[in-house]
Amino acid sequence: MKPSAFAYHAPHSLEAALDTLAELGEDGKVLAGGQSLVPLLNMRLAAPAALVDLARIDGLDAIEVTDRDVRVDARVTHERLRTHAAATEAIPLLRQALDWVAHPVIRNRGTALGSIAHADPAGELPAVLALLGGHVELASAQERRTATADDYLVGPLESDTRPGELATAVVFPRPAPNTGSAFDELARRHGDYALAGVGVTVTLDDDRKVRRADAAFIGVGATPIQVPLTDALAGQPGDALAPDDAIDLARSTIDPEDDIHATARYRRHLAGVLLGRALQTAAARAVAGGTA
Amino acid sequence: MTATDGTTTRTATAHERVEVTLTVNGTPRTAFVAPRRLLSDFLRHDLELTGTHVGCEHGVCGACTVLLDGAPIRSCLAFAISVDGRELTTIEGLAADDGTLHPVQQAFRDHHGLQCGFCTPGFVMSACGFLAENPDPDEDEIREGMAGNLCRCTGYAGILDAVKQAAGDISDRATHPCEQHRVDADVANGNDREG
Ligand SMILES: Cc1cc2nc3c(=O)[nH]c(=O)nc-3n(C[C@H](O)[C@H](O)[C@H](O)COP(=O)(O)OP(=O)(O)OC[C@H]3O[C@@H](n4cnc5c(N)ncnc54)[C@H](O)[C@@H]3O)c2cc1C
Ligand code: FES
Ligand code: FES
Fold it and tell me: Around A209, how many Cα atoms within 13 Å sit in the side-chain half-sphere?
């Protein structure tokens, strides 16, 4: 199908975009890469009166890597972030997760921040945001604010982006030293949204024993489901991790639903299998040294 | 206001037809379209370049894949107005004027990488974009690179063989696959609907 008619605005600067969004209020919708929004428009599941296209904004396209974090502006595509050497060296989990995001052709246009704003329960980057304890920066004509994953990711396909607001950047904190990470998932075809998936971080102490471990699951709840695993794994050797307790804990924490793609029972089983693999990979990476 | 130089805010009302100019296969092409005009429909209806196919119209099948400034994208997921001023390569831009096929097209023919042909323009454009990024792929990389396109006829084996051959042909000639896109191809035979 074709989208219904909309007025079109392509502001040249952030300030102009915020003014336009303020004027439009409830009628305005941000268009970033269009890889989630345009399908919704084509299927007429959404019919906004006006689109505010980020394509012509001068700027808003930087990737900044500091000692503390990686900051990614709104116009940065999945593919640019995935292949950005400094960013993925600072936080290998970005690359590990982005390898699973859609197909290369989709990644060429879709933006990293757009997938967080879109808040698909099977999206990889919302889980990375939650797992690393990052935040989203938002701006409107009146104010600037930041929101954590818990505050921003409200429900399936629902983020707390208010009328008149633009998400300008996402900030991913760098993991602690001696941290390994991994992302694993299963989809029917590589590049499709996952039936279930998990991102994990494992931090070792100086004796190479687990000091801290965390997981964030996708596709098994309304938003990324975070499961702290330190109690289940603390003290275990990084090079011989036995993930069984962590798997049991995770399976009893998550509460997936049946849908046309898979049953809840299968998803719960799958989530545990993926967690076991991801934990062992992450621990091995932590042992092999360096951060994440 | 229809400035496109990136320093002026561009706006259009919902039913206004605005001028959109793209360089398609080396030739500037202009049409007047409403903001909701998809790039795929701009090519097919406004420029009468019907080589780009439309299957699902929501990003899943890949039939509508074209190269935007050399990188493959779904033309059903972009609005023509959003990409005004940029360069496109479509399936019509690949073969030489005398009909000599582009190495990727020739490889699809050699390996029976098509049956009904509906998916083929998308696969060929995806392969061109993929090989430009990764000129010497292994089989897993080829599978992953082509996984975003659907074919209901061939069973994919011929397509994967074709991409493998094309990779060899292109690197044998030591030419970047993008340079084999014929930017000078004459595709300006559709009717520009000016004014
Ligand atoms: C076939 C296919 C497979 C896919 N598979 C996956 C997958 O496996 N994993 C995955 O994570 N994604 C997948 N995607 C989606 C893809 O990652 C999208 O790029 C992403 O979800 C949205 O980013 P975008 O820039 O395209 O946003 P758009 O589509 O432009 O926007 C999406 C939504 O976010 C809002 N928005 C976007 N940017 C901002 C901003 N800066 N401020 C405020 N609001 C904003 C828009 O208003 C809209 O509501 C897939 C898409 C397709 C078509
Ligand atoms: S028509 Fe564009 S992806 Fe199917
Ligand atoms: S050849 Fe018929 S769909 Fe691919």
Answer: 7
